[in-house]
histidine--tRNA ligase
Amino acid sequence: IAKEVAKLLEMKAQLGTDEGKHKFVLKTPKGTRDFGPKEMAIRERAFKAIISCFKRHGAEVIDTPVFELKETLTGKYGEDSKLIYDLKDQGGELLSLRYDLTVPFARYLAMNKITNIKRYHIAKVYRRDNPAMTRGRYREFYQCDFDIAGQFDPMIPDAECLKIVHEILSDLQLGDFVIKVNDRRILDGMFAVCGVPDSKFRTICSSVDKLDKVPWEEVRSEMVGEKGLSPEAADRIGEYVQLHGGLDLIEQLLQDPQLSQNKVAKEGLGDMKLLFEYLTLFGITGKISFDLSLARGLDYYTGVIFEAVLLQQDHEHLEEPLSVGSVAGGGRYDGLVGMFDAKGRKVPCVGVSIGIERIFSILEQRLEASEEKIRTTETQVLVASAQKKLLEERLRLISELWDAGIKAEMLYKKNPKLLNQLQYCEETGIPLVAIVGEQELKDGVVKLRIVATREEVNVRRESLVEEIRIRTSQC
Amino acid sequence: IAKEVAKLLEMKAQLGTDEGKHKFVLKTPKGTRDFGPKEMAIRERAFKAIISCFKRHGAEVIDTPVFELKETLTGKYGEDSKLIYDLKDQGGELLSLRYDLTVPFARYLAMNKITNIKRYHIAKVYRRDNPAMTRGRYREFYQCDFDIAGQFDPMIPDAECLKIVHEILSDLQLGDFVIKVNDRRILDGMFAVCGVPDSKFRTICSSVDKLDKVPWEEVRSEMVGEKGLSPEAADRIGEYVQLHGGLDLIEQLLQDPQLSQNKVAKEGLGDMKLLFEYLTLFGITGKISFDLSLARGLDYYTGVIFEAVLLQQDHEHLEEPLSVGSVAGGGRYDGLVGMFDAKGRKVPCVGVSIGIERIFSILEQRLEASEEKIRTTETQVLVASAQKKLLEERLRLISELWDAGIKAEMLYKKNPKLLNQLQYCEETGIPLVAIVGEQELKDGVVKLRIVATREEVNVRRESLVEEIRIRTSQC
């Protein structure tokens, strides 16, 4: 049916262009959106908080192209590969839009033989997923990634990634949150002791990954029905995945008769204990939950995995409750760079990705609810005139101000009315008006009006720049 | 041949993936590149200058998706349309990567019925052109656009666009430059009085556009040979297009017996005169050249057009001279928004686009030549230890610093050598080291080392944050 609909839509689109220029649909592509000035102001606020955190942790920044060779992305995303956008073959290389920033990062490391770097990268990624835009799920969306690559002592960089998530979510004041933590090695050990055959580890892991969206019963029936797992194995998994806690749970599992006999599980649990010790030193264990149901969808994780979830705030807003969810995730991927190296040389990596769209949705809704009027420009002064025929004088003055680094605007009219000029300041939040008039020109002064108080003072022209600087220094 | 080569390359790529994981080519797509930390530091410097200029002129900022419906781009770019990247038809809408930021801007205005806005937009655009990467010509590249949309009095916004180009190129200290200015109406009038048939205006305009790359003789033979223009008409064009100057040339052409009889040419010349009056008030006519050979390739311009060119610096650098060229361009496009409006309602627009890649090339080469060591992080302090077994103390201290907003790093080793820690500071330019040791812990102090002077002072732990702030406040 979807194919048929697509065909019909396409035919309709073609008809549209045949019928004439003005018949096409005026929209952005499905699952994408424009950011107008207001949305950009919110977006830049969020980015500022995130970037300043990444810089506080000493990260460098890199950028990579929006598309990669198709083969660079092949075999990295498991079941999600079908969501990759391909470019049309127009001759030359076969290309795909990036699906995340992690695979391009690994490609960058291998290509430049970099074995040691701490970097952030903020850019858009592309997934042909089913969009749910009111809940902040788009086909084009930003990821804010921070990764540490290099051979280091266990869990020190991993702990820093969690500290970063904690800092950013606290800083953005998004309400209460919890960071779930698990380890692929613990999951694999758990699958082994539950009797899952090796060959089914990844696919059963994908089923577990759905537990944050669907109830256990459904996941169980997918495991047994679609994936052919024995009911007994599924039930044993069912018991483990309801466990979550802190250091106590780690200790309990280290004593677990089955898990403690499994080599990888034991390694994972040992590292998890170390991680919690470091997180205790950072003072953030209060928001961390060791959760055996956390699996993460992507294939490339090899160790610690984590995901930050915003907790629903009851009755805080009167509107319908926001459907929140995962806002950050990440983990350790020690094998990915080696997949790009001719000799398979590995570069261990751990990183975190902040999913900013959901955060935008929340910040936008909050701003909507509040009375705060957000400014979309930083203009300090409007250059205005009180009488007609003063365009030249306005141009001369505004040019002086620009050259002195003052943020200034004027209306693009020959003879604007003073009222319209003052109104423009009210609407856009410009705090000052520099008014030129015949008398002021004769006297070598400019009348400076403070919009908020309607106070007016004459300022000597040569002192105007300094006066504007002083009066807007708190902005 | 190109097709055959593409086929062969494709077969080779397929063979590659069949032969095993490690056989693929490790590269970015043709005409694209990664930005490493150093390149990013340069890029962010350039962006900072550009954005602060746009904000100084009161612009808001918007963003649009990287792809648009294919039909949104159709019929906007004339001969260049073949360079558009299409996405593969994977079901659903037919999409193309944006070719510039102007058409998406016009689509945005029409879609949201905005008739009045001053905005900037900095983003990557995509052209399947022949890359010449050493000269800064890429298939994926940034454009920094500033546009003013709305019905205003003539040439006031147009003059501001030129002022902006002047400010940015001066601010970036790229050496001497000239901004060529012309008007599509003057060109059209000139074509008319030279005897070019109406139907050939756009294609002859495309030929004139090549004059900055190829000599007149070649352009003439294209006009006459390929495009079927009469030799007499071509020769008359040839006389006009060698003219360039300032107000005097405008006055001269206003007296030109043919041009002065042509309605559109007269309008264009009248506005050009007004523009020069405004530019005189801005004090920037010294860098402006009214140049009849400037045509601009894109179809959508309707009035003033302009292009900024860097002038070759003789013998300033000892290396081979940099091949410089156009670094900014723009003009008036009063019809574009109307093409997206069902009722054809027009929104007059004028704007400028800064082509940043060439500017990057120059800044990169200059930095290479200079001795300046560019820092790629902003880290203020490295948290180090003088003895073994102090990992926990380092973690505790760095966490305190992060929480206080200090930019701090530590080595991810349990027991790093002090020498290695100091060396890391030298390499990365970190100015301070906070050293914890047994004795310092007992005394409740931290040893603060100033890397540049090797001076060391004991600072009480509770004063450390303040001390670091003071000592790095000049950074």
Remarks:
- Residues 37-369 of chain A form a domain with the BirA Bifunctional Protein; domain 2 fold (CATH 3.30.930.10).
- Chain A has two domains: 37-369, 381-473.
- Confidence is low (pLDDT under 50) at residues 16-22, 318-323 of chain A.
- Chain A touches chain B through 107 residues (CB under 8 Å).
